[in-house]
Write a structure and sequence with these properties.
Blueprint lengths: L1 E6 L6 H6 L6 E2 L7 E5 L2 E8 L2 E6 L3 E2 L2 E2 H8 L7 H5 L8 H6 L10 H11 L4 H15 L15 H5 L3 H4 L7 H15 L13 H9 L6 H11 L10 H10 L1 H4 L10 H15 L3 H16 L1 H7 L6 H5 L10
Antiparallel strand pairs: 1-5, 2-3, 3-4, 4-5, 6-7
C-alpha cells in the first residue's frame, strides 16, 4: 500500500465533497474519520486533518499518473474558486449555501463510470445507489490487488455481453434500465460513441448528444457533463434546484414547471437563467443549492454532515431568511 500526505487549499472539505451525492463509491467516515473507496480503478483511503490530506492507495500509478498527482486532479485541488465564491458572499440565493457548505468541491470523475452510475441512479436514493453499485462492481468488476473486498468499475466490454435479465437485479429490478445500460456499453465498446469527444465540444451540444441516447434526460446529462467532462456551465436541475430557482427568481416561477421536473423547454430556460446569474461556474452553484436544500428538509442528512459544517447551527437560527424571494 502506498501512503502520502499533501497540503490542501484553505477552503476544502473532504467530508462534504465525498458525501454530497455526486459520487457513489465512497464509504465513511470510519471511527478514525477516514473514507475508503474506489476511484480511477484504484483503492483509496483518505483522511483530512486540518489542511492536511493523508492518503493510501493500492498502486503507485493511477491511470498513468503518480498516485498523488492523480488524486489532486480527481479532488479538483488545483481549481481556485475563491474569487467566484467571494463574489456571491452577500448574494440572497448563494450567501448561506456558500457559508454553510464551505469547502465543497466538484470531483473530476471518470466519464464511463460516471455515465453508467447516473444511469443506475435515476429516481433512487443515494443510499440505494451506493448499495446497487457495490454489488454490481463486486459481481462484474475485477478485484483490486492488495485491497481485499474492493473491485474496479466494470469496463464497457464486461457489460456489453450481458443480458438485461442478468443486470436487472442491480438496477432495482428495472429491466428497461438494465437494457439501456447494456446498449450504452455496446455503443462505447464498439466506438460508436466517444465519451471523451463530449469533453471537447460546447456544453449545450454535449447535452444534446447525451440526450439522444435512450434513458438520459437533461438532468442526468448535465450531471455527467459537470462531474466528469469538465463542463462547469452544466447546471443539473433536480427537484431541489428547481425549488430554489422557483423560490428566488420570478421569471422561473412564471414558467409553470411542476414540482418534480421541468419540461425540456423549461429546463433550458432555467439553465440560461443560472448562467446569467451565477456565471460560467454555475454548475458549482447547482451542487451547493442541491445539498443545501436537502439538508434543510432532511434531519438525518443534517446530522451526517454537521461535523463538516461549523456554521450550520448559527444558520438554522436564521433559517427564515432563506425564503426571501427576489
Amino acid at each position: 500500500m502506498i501512503r502520502g500526505s499533501r497540503l490542501l487549499p484553505e477552503s476544502f472539505s473532504l467530508g462534504l465533497t465525498l458525501l454530497c451525492g455526486q459520487a457513489f463509491r465512497w464509504d465513511g467516515p470510519d471511527s478514525e474519520g477516514g473514507f475508503t473507496g474506489v476511484a480511477g480503478q484504484a483503492y483509496w483511503r483518505l483522511k483530512q486533518e486540518g489542511r492536511r490530506l493523508f492518503w493510501e492507495c493500492n498502486s503507485p500509478v493511477v491511470r498513468g499518473k503518480g498516485a498523488e498527482n492523480w488524486l489532486a486532479h480527481y479532488l479538483n485541488l488545483d481549481e481556485d474558486l475563491d474569487e467566484w465564491a467571494g463574489s456571491f458572499a452577500s448574494h440572497p440565493v448563494m450567501e448561506f449555501p456558500l457559508k454553510v457548505l464551505k469547502g465543497l468541491r466538484l470531483l473530476r470523475q471518470e466519464s464511463w463510470e460516471c455515465t453508467i452510475s447516473y444511469m443506475f441512479a435515476q429516481g433512487l436514493s443515494v443510499k440505494v445507489i451506493r448499495q446497487a453499485l457495490k454489488k454490481f462492481c463486486t459481481e462484474y468488476g475485477r478485484p483490486l490487488e492488495g485491497a481485499q473486498g474492493f473491485h474496479a468499475f466494470p469496463e464497457a466490454g464486461a457489460i456489453a455481453v450481458l443480458s438485461p435479465d442478468a443486470l436487472r437485479p442491480f438496477t432495482n429490478n428495472y429491466r428497461a434500465r438494465a437494457d439501456r445500460i447494456i446498449r450504452m456499453a455496446r455503443a462505447v465498446e464498439a466506438q460508436v460513441l466517444s465519451l471523451e469527444h463530449l469533453k471537447s465540444i460546447p456544453c449545450d451540444d454535449a447535452r444534446e448528444a447525451m440526450m439522444a441516447l435512450d434513458g438520459i434526460g437533461p438532468k442526468i446529462a448535465d450531471c455527467i457533463l459537470l462531474f466528469s467532462m469538465d463542463h462547469p456551465s452544466a447546471f443539473p436541475v433536480d427537484r431541489w434546484v428547481l425549488r430554489a430557482m422557483k423560490r428566488h427568481f420570478r421569471s422561473i416561477k412564471l414558467l409553470g414547471a411542476g414540482e418534480e421536473a421541468p419540461s425540456r423547454a423549461q429546463y433550458l430556460k432555467i439553465v440560461k437563467k443560472a448562467r446569467t446569474v451565477f456565471g460560467h461556474h454555475c454548475g458549482v452553484a447547482s451542487e451547493y443549492l442541491f445539498l443545501f436544500l436537502r439538508m434543510l428538509e432532511d434531519e438525518k442528512l443534517r446530522l451526517e454532515l454537521a461535523p463538516y459544517c461549523p456554521t450550520l447551527d448559527s444558520f438554522l437560527r436564521l433559517e427564515g431568511r432563506i425564503a426571501r424571494p427576489l
